[in-house]
Amino acid sequence: MNRREFHKTLGAVLAASAFPGKALAANDTQATSAPASAGTVAATNAASQIAMLVHPAFVTLDLIGPHQFFTSLGNVNVHLVWKTRDLVSSSNGVVIQPTTTLKDCPKDLDVLFVPGGLEGGTALMNDAEVIDFLHDRGQRAKFVTSVCTGSLLLGAAGLLQGYRAASHWTVLDLLPLFGAEPVAERIVEDRNRISGGGVTAGIDFGLKVAGRLRGEQHAKMLQLMLEYDPQPPFQAGSPKNAGPELTQKVRDFRAPAVAAARQAALVAQKRLQG
Amino acid sequence: MNRREFHKTLGAVLAASAFPGKALAANDTQATSAPASAGTVAATNAASQIAMLVHPAFVTLDLIGPHQFFTSLGNVNVHLVWKTRDLVSSSNGVVIQPTTTLKDCPKDLDVLFVPGGLEGGTALMNDAEVIDFLHDRGQRAKFVTSVCTGSLLLGAAGLLQGYRAASHWTVLDLLPLFGAEPVAERIVEDRNRISGGGVTAGIDFGLKVAGRLRGEQHAKMLQLMLEYDPQPPFQAGSPKNAGPELTQKVRDFRAPAVAAARQAALVAQKRLQG
To answer: Do A237 and B247 touch (CB under 8 A)?
Structure first.
């Protein structure tokens, strides 16, 4: 883009990020969370349509990391989607309001996104309403994406068959049940599938997807605005860095939840093969 | 802590993070977001009390980064505090529910936290109800903390006089109006004040505060659980990395909002001196 376009986009982006309503009027773009009619087909200059699933016991940061980048893209509608618009409680007690329902969510999406939350996701791996939604939107979405254990739900919806994918390190070995190849990397891209690792990987993922949707220069602008210059005070963010003892403790403690997820995944596997 | 205590803590932490209600019953700790009676004084073995301000147009990720760490501490009550318990909309359209009010918030806190959101914060720099709340709780809190432009609100409440502090890079030069020394670092600690830089700095900040509250080993456990092993796909997260052109563009665009914040800060300065 040229300098003028860049500055115009910058304006929309920064304003949208700071104060949507006010900014978007001034910049003639659509509200970041304004409802869109179902079935909207994205066309040149049409707002990007991004749907993010918010299910009971989702992990808040899994959702909000990417959401902060997505809502800063400019000319975008970001939908928080659940079965109803009733308040939903995350795994650590943040109560938020969905902006639309599975039924009313636009049918043609630029990005379909699923956050993690192992117990919450396990409960949905064979939920017809959710699986049908993901399968339907995932077939046409430009990008089919997840962070953390969200990739298990994508898998249960039959969207990762033959794809490489990331997940939280404790559940990577469940991905083959859905025909996916587990990859222990921060962000995994395979054709139009983009998946992130556990929780905080959503920040790196959000920045990466911003680049895919708007280009590297625009993504860097968002990175500067959100001051993403990570400097962790400790180095224990991966099993390799944390060492075997700490890794085993976390793995042992999560074993029951992982076992329950495996059972649900086996049911899903049969469903997908049947 | 010894091995048994560590494992017990690990259990509470991981469980609380994943599925509070269920986990805490099993581990005999308090719910992460259960209401606490006003005026509770923290004692040994009492739950830590953490209050996080949620004001209209707060920046979602400023809040949720630290919140994900705080709610994973185990034996903690994390309060989302506003004037009423009516739904509050963040700057990018996430509608969340406060868990308590300024009036009902515990009076003796382990951590007082203020997120950023420049326009939203500017509107509160001279709001008596909010400033009185921050000043009152801040005088007794074990740690007085902020992320991003939240440090401006701490300053407006008279809580940074003579302290070093961080903020979003675009507004660092406003801190001296409150008698604070601006520091362009990711996390700034000065006695019991801990402040983070812009937005995503809240992840580093949350991990740091977790270490201050529960020790380094516990913090590392959370880091592994939240898989905080950042790998940004681009390098533009600071003015230095982004370069002068991009930095100036962002600065120019934010100039009106920063100017408004300066005006409010000047009013606050007079109030604090008078």
So the answer is: no
Q: What does the alpha-carbon distance between residue B116 and residue B102 come to, in Å, rounded to a whole number?
A: 18
Return the CATH class of domain B3-36+44-230+243-273. Answer: alpha beta
DSSP state of A190: E
Domain ranges of chain A: 3-36+44-230+243-273
Task: Give the nearest partner residue to B250 out of A216, A221, A254, using CB atoms.
Answer: A221
Q: What's the ipTM?
A: 0.87
**pLDDT tens digits, A84-101:** 999 999 999 999 999 999
* Nearest residue in chain B measured CA to CA from A118: B18
- Band (A44; pLDDT cuts 50, 70, 90): low
Residue B168 three-state SS: coil
pLDDT > 90? residue A43 = no
> Which candidate in A234, A245, A247 is best for mutational testing of the B interface (most B CBs within 10 A)?
A234
Active site residue B105: no
**Count of CB atoms situated within 10 Å of the CB of B269:** 18
| Residue type present at position A149 | T
Q: Which positions in chain A touch B57 (Cβ < 8 Å)?
A: 18-19
Higher pLDDT, B133 or A249: B133
